[in-house]
Design goal:
Number of strands: 22
Distance between the termini: 113 Å
Number of helices: 17
Bound molecules: adenosine-5'-diphosphate
Radius of gyration: 47 Å
Structural class: alpha+beta
Shape: rod-shaped
Strand content: 15-25%
Helix content: 40-55%
Strand order of the largest sheet: 1-8-7-6-2-3-5-4
């Protein structure tokens, strides 16, 4: 037998003045025991109706009911049917209801005797969330009536006895005689009834204390549950980000995990340093309804809010970016367009710092119309993730540096191997020549003067070849190891080209340099570079162009503005050209088309590798173009344009170092390792 109507509802409908209250399970247990104790204390012949939600709750009290049954024959116990709980008439009446019955959610106890009557008619409230569900059984909450009012008690008994008759028609007569004996007309209460007017102040006080204690406990449980949930979240996010040493993967995972955990409209994470003017948004988690910021350039230097966060190294949480009373209204006004463009209603910024250094930023956005109040829990969670993320970023950075270092070591190893190979040929060959020449000169004093001169000349040329190789090799090593201190200043590109041309001309004293045409606009802005190294690049490229261009060919130097920030210098020739597939390889160390062992043009194979190091060190790029064999080559490189007043101060300093004008040795002052001329 099953009835889906709630007894609590039936009672509240019958007596609308009743105001149900909230009771914790602990309070109901105490009240039930107090009511039962009244009977056990000697109130004979009482009517007792008790309804348990489940058999196991009944079993905990079964021995009490055996003792109560000694004092009265009008005891009715209801419970969900179980292995031992069935409907029968033994020491007292037991009434089993089915699992679908509304009583499964209810807790009732009615006691009526000549001088005491009380009832407890309650229904369990479903838990609101997982944290409540998972907390203790004691925190279960019920809603209903506890009263000693005769009318309410008898109405409750009436409803329950009707149910009993419905479930157990076999004891209908007994139920009816109980009604006749215990239910006499009592006055219907006219006032609001919520159990506070009960005549038993002791029990009333006890329940109040119990309820208050339980509230405190519940609050504590909730705080612990929230803390536990936060820790679980931090751990799971941490373990996800710690599984990788790849910065991209770490940022992506952290943004997605944090965004989901806090259910924000957007979660952005970007690496940045205190001095960065802008950041590019590369990692984002967002709700599908919100516009993506991926690839956008985020202003940092012009955002006073960014300044504030990086100064204080603290989280800033703004519930309403449109609030005229917000303590950050001035900072927000400075970026109002941005806020409106991306509909950022509530904003949280958390800096990622490591040992006081800013390494990145977490941003959370809510874009719905209503402001979102960031909770302490939100902030604590973001703070904990920020701490973990900063460490993960530093580790990833260190790992990347390590990999970089490994690559450099591998490159160094290759250099060493190449050095050994090249030494075999480049150093041994000229050394043998020098040795043969010197031996001949010393063993044959009668050698004709003409031949003697040839011998001396050959020895000198090969000594020079060796010196150049050693010199280039040392310079490249210095550039590659990053030990170069760039002396940046504002320079005229025209002056640099003039200097390079005179150096190349002085250098090629024998064979005339091919026809070199210079196209530099008069309006070309100053460049910002280290003059000695810039001239070095021009000299090397011009040297190559003339070396690989036969007599009658043409060489052109052209300067154009390739972008608002850079000038582009192109040195083109009509010489032997480069296979398109080798255009990148020519910048490798020791690359020579014919191979070092069959080289006919002289050179070390280090020139372009040095040019690449220098150009990149100055903040530009270098590349080669050619349509193929015998179709000429073009070498291009870019160099930053000088900006600001400070840059123009030293624009003439290069002129003072002009080797032609001074007639001084070719080494430029300030950087003795760089030889421009012999
Ligand atoms: P090298 O001392 O051999 O000139 P570089 O590093 O300057 O060393 O040049 C590497 C190689 O690139 C050269 O050996 C040559 O094969 C090729 N190369 C450089 N410049 C030119 C050019 N202007 N035309 C054709 N080939 C060139």
């Amino acid at each position: 037998m099953s009835n889906s109507t709630s007894v609590v509802e039936e009672l509240l409908t019958a007596i609308p003045q009743l105001r149900p209250r909230l009771y914790f399970k602990t309070s109901l247990t105490a009240l039930s025991h107090a009511m039962e104790d009244h009977i056990l204390a000697g109130v004979g012949g009482a009517l007792v109706v008790a309804s348990f939600q489940q058999e196991r709750f009944y079993l905990q009290e079964a021995s009490r009911y055996l003792r109560i049954a000694d004092l009265s024959d009008q005891i009715y116990v209801l419970s969900a049917a179980g292995t031992s709980f069935t409907s029968r008439s033994e020491n007292y009446e037991t009434i089993a209801f089915e699992a679908e019955d509304a009583l499964v959610h209810e807790w009732h106890l009615v006691v009526i005797s000549d001088n005491y009557q009380a009832c407890l008619i309650c229904r369990e409230r479903p838990a609101h969330d997982d944290s409540e569900q998972s907390s203790l059984d004691q925190n279960r909450r019920f809603e209903g009536i506890w009263t000693q009012d005769p009318y309410v008690t008898q109405r409750s008994a009436d409803i329950l006895l009707d149910r009993i008759a419905q479930y157990r028609p076999d004891i209908l007569n007994k139920v009816q005689s109980a009604k006749a004996r215990y239910l006499f007309p009592a006055a219907m209460p006219s006032e609001r009834l919520d159990g506070k007017g009960n005549p038993d102040p002791f029990t009333q006080r006890l329940v109040t204390y119990l309820q208050a204690g339980q509230y405190k406990l519940l609050k504590a449980y909730k705080a612990i549950a929230a803390q536990e949930q936060r820790e679980r979240l931090v751990n799971s996010i941490t373990s996800v980000i710690r599984q990788s040493l790849n910065a991209t993967e770490i940022f992506e995972k952290a943004a997605s995990e944090l965004g989901q955990a806090l259910n924000v409209c957007r979660c952005l994470i970007y690496p940045c340093a205190a001095t960065d003017a802008t950041a590019t948004i590369e990692y984002e988690h967002r709700q599908p309804t919100v516009e993506s910021l991926l690839g956008e350039t985020w202003p940092l230097a012009t955002s006073p809010l960014f300044d504030y966060v990086q100064d204080t190294k603290d989280i800033v949480a703004i519930p309403d970016t449109h609030d005229p009373e917000s303590p950050f209204r001035y900072e927000l006004d400075a970026i109002r367009l941005l806020l409106d463009r991306w509909r950022i209603q509530s904003w949280l910024m958390a800096p990622l710092t490591y040992q006081g250094r800013l390494v990145g930023m977490i941003e959370l956005h809510h874009c719905q119309a209503n402001p979102y109040e960031w909770t302490e829990d939100d902030k604590e969670l973001v703070d904990a993730i920020a701490a973990q993320l900063s460490v993960a970023i530093i580790q990833a950075e260190a790992y990347a540096n390590l990999q970089d270092l490994n690559r450099q070591l591998e490159a160094l190893d290759l250099t060493r191997a190449n050095l050994i190979a090249i030494t075999g040929h480049e150093l041994r060959t000229p050394l043998s020549t020098i040795q043969v020449c010197l031996e001949s000169l010393s063993t044959e004093p009668d050698m004709p003067a003409e031949l003697r001169q040839v011998m001396i000349q050959a020895a000198l040329e090969d000594a020079e070849r060796m010196r150049k190789l050693v010199q280039d090799f040392l310079t490249l090593s210095k550039l590659e190891s990053g030990r170069v201190e760039w002396n940046m200043e504002a320079l005229s590109i025209q002056e640099c080209v003039d200097l390079a041309l005179s150096s190349v001309n002085a250098h090629n004293t024998g064979a005339p340099v091919s026809n070199i045409k210079v196209k530099i606009p008069k309006s070309a802005p100053l460049v910002r570079a280290d003059g000695e190294w810039l001239v070095e690049v021009l000299v090397k490229l011009l040297d190559n162009a003339s070396k690989f261009t036969p007599a009658g060919g043409r060489i052109t130097i052209q300067v154009t503005r390739s972008s608002p920030t850079h000038l582009q210098v192109t040195i083109a020739d009509t010489g032997r050209g480069i296979e398109p597939s080798r255009l990148d390889a020519v910048f490798d160390r020791f690359y020579q088309e014919e191979g070092a062992l069959r080289r006919t043009t002289g050179g070390t194979g280090l020139g372009l590798a040095m040019c690449r190091q220098i150009v990149e060190g100055l903040g530009g790029t270098i590349w080669a173009d050619s349509e193929g064999k015998n179709k000429g080559s073009q070498f291009h490189f870019t160099v930053p344009i000088a900006q600001g007043k400070g840059d123009s101060r030293s624009r003439n300093s290069l002129g003072n170092r002009h080797p032609q004008r001074t007639g001084q040795p070719a080494t430029l002052p300030g950087n003795p390792s760089v030889l421009l001329d012999d």
